[in-house]
Write a structure and sequence with these properties.
Length: 211
């Protein structure tokens, strides 16, 4: 069944009579499938959790996307299923190898073995994008988002997952999230933020627009 709050190409689909978020594409991580549809597991994907929790991501489907922290492709595969050209940055060689097989049947998914802290190293490959999705889970998450704002036009979206413990294991997550929001303000206006704890402990989902 199509849901107007979800991007085109993302639906709530019944798998064994249980409705779950789903996209159409080849399976990647052992998720349930039904014909062309495959479940998008919010407990394996922060962007999936943001959609499941009803955050207004602004994603319509078909956008050009820069995805930072692609790992072995769990979430970025769903993004590529519903979006246009999808550039997937990952700096660790092992997951990047798995990402290559995920990209193989997806002609719009372009893996880049690059460090997201150094956008100048992929600026010659990545065209301006409509949306940056980020899930790097390392120290300096907000700074990475600010550095990559260069790829977005004014008003372009940032969909960010922040892991509090990656910034400071001892700090109160709410203090970490306040600091992250403050750092983001150098390049973005935060439109919505929500704790993702139902699916991911001590994570914040952020929807922001490029100033
Ligand atoms: N987004 C993935 C998903 O949902 O399928 C999971 C990402 S995992 C939490 C974080 C990933 O970000 C790791 O694979 C890590 O190697 C990568 N990463 C961390 N810092 C990075 C950086 N500076 N540049 C590129 N990748 C980075």
């Amino acid at each position: 069944m199509s849901d107007p709050a979800l991007p085109e190409g993302v639906e709530r689909h019944a798998f064994d009579s249980r409705e779950r978020l789903a996209t159409r594409g080849p399976p990647v991580y052992g998720e349930p499938t039904d014909g062309e549809w495959r479940a998008w597991d919010p407990s394996r994907s922060k962007l999936g959790a943001m959609l499941e929790l009803g955050m207004d991501t602004g994603l319509a489907g078909g956008e050009t996307v820069l995805y930072l922290g692609a790992a072995s492709g769990t979430t970025v595969s769903h993004v590529a299923d519903c979006c246009g050209p999808t550039y997937a940055v990952e700096f660790a060689a092992r997951p990047a190898r798995d990402l290559l097989s995920v990209a193989e049947p997806r002609g719009n998914l372009f893996p880049l073995l690059k460090d997201a802290r150094r956008p100048a190293t992929y600026a010659h490959v990545v065209e301006p994008v409509d949306v940056v999705v980020q899930d790097v889970a390392t120290r300096g998450q907000a700074d990475v988002a600010v550095r990559n704002a260069r790829f977005l036009p004014e008003g372009g979206r940032l969909l960010l997952a922040v892991k509090a413990r990656s910034e400071d294991v001892t700090a109160d997550p709410d203090d970490v999230f306040d600091e992250v929001t403050e750092t983001l303000s150098a390049a973005y206006e935060v439109l919505e933020s929500r704790r993702l704890d139902r699916f991911h402990d001590d994570h914040l989902g952020v929807v922001a627009r490029r100033r």
